[in-house]
Design goal:
Rossmann fold, alpha/beta, binds nicotinamide-adenine-dinucleotide, 267 residues
Amino acid sequence: MPNKIRLVVHGAAGRMGQSVLRAAMDREDCEVCAALAPSHSTLIGEPLAQVYGKGAPDIEFTAQLDPDLLPDALIDFTGARAFDTALALAVGRRIPFVSGTTGLSDDQRLALADAGRSIPVLWAANFSLGVALLRRMTALAATVLPAEFDAEIIEAHHKFKQDSPSGTALALGRAIAQARRVDFDAVARYGRAGVTAQRRDGEIGFSVVRAADIVGEHTVLFAAPGERIELTHRAGSRAVFAHGAVRAAIWLARQRPGTYDITDVLG
Ligand code: NAD
């Protein structure tokens, strides 16, 4: 097929990176031209076909991006430290940049916005269509319901997850704060323990579960005396996020420099 979108996968050895590789291989309209892993990874030098069999692109896992390659988009799922390397690479080589790495600092968010002036960038805490809808439904509920409704967010993930609460939980909390026109940082409450744990009016509370291999679950709870609304999304497979990220990268490859949101892609 002509004009296949050429993708770089940064963090290719990780859980999400591998899922992104598989998602890209499932599509006809893109091809992976580089699979980047850290230099100490045992996968460096390994042909992708060795890991993924027939149908895998004819490349090896590498630590550096070949200077002669001209990729159309880079997909990053790593960690907060490796994110800086990925963004610098994308800006330096002028490659449209998609990232799902969570746990970013305020400075990293600023760097991302800054990068949007020279290349197209799209960061999302969650690449699933269901979560994009959950965010909208959460904002709608927070707009319609009076502020007397207590808002709480409960999330669950696998035991290896580094950051907490999840980026998705924070995005849902920010959606509530925005709808209520309050400063998110002033009302966010992370966990409750001890005798000072009584709930303050207007708080947005976060509860976190880390266990086994849970892929990702989020519940937004709105409660008033006598009634309760719970909006829940459960991801059963990382493939959901990986397919969303690949779709976003293919879309982003054709955009002008700017900062884009996942809802621009998923509708
Ligand atoms: P993981 O630990 O399995 O994978 C991270 C990978 O990054 C590791 O293989 C590590 O070796 C690699 N890495 C570190 N430094 C690197 C570098 N300099 N160059 C290349 N690779 C490097 O973690 P994971 O479960 O795949 O999650 C990765 C990130 O994605 C986390 O921040 C997680 O919260 C986030 N995540 C986002 C979504 C979403 O939809 N946005 C979904 C799931 C996970």
